[in-house]
Design brief:
Layout (H helix, E strand, L loop, with lengths): L26 H16 L1 H12 L4 H18 L2 E2 L19 E2 L1
Antiparallel strand pairs: 1-2
Helix pairs in contact: 2-3
Length: about 100
């Protein structure tokens, strides 16, 4: 028979009974906010110049790279959307799909 291992806390209790205070941001959120401030604030001009150099290039590969970078950065600071794709078989009446922001 296996020995029962005792934990630090009694069943139903935790080491942080009050939990994290409401409104407290986690470390990742604070890091993303700092990055956003860096890009949109302190380093906005430099970021925009670098992005423009890609986008204004005559080389399609550099333009594509610039667009890819822009979309990656933008995706972190704009609301995420959920979407549903439905391809009917013609036997069912059309449906209406409403897409809402995930907040």
């Amino acid at each position: 028979m296996a020995e029962e291992i005792e934990g630090r806390f009694k069943k139903g209790e935790s080491g942080n009974p009050n939990g994290r205070p409401k409104g407290t941001r986690n470390k990742k959120t604070l890091e993303w906010e700092a990055l956003q401030e860096s890009i949109t604030g302190r380093h906005a001009e430099s970021f925009n110049e670098n992005l423009s150099s890609f986008m204004d290039s005559d080389e399609p590969e550099l333009q594509a790279k610039g667009m890819e970078m822009y979309i990656k950065v933008l995706s972190h600071f704009k609301p995420k959307y959920s979407s549903i794709t439905h391809e009917g078989d013609g036997l069912v009446a059309p449906i209406s799909i409403i897409i809402k922001d995930k907040i």
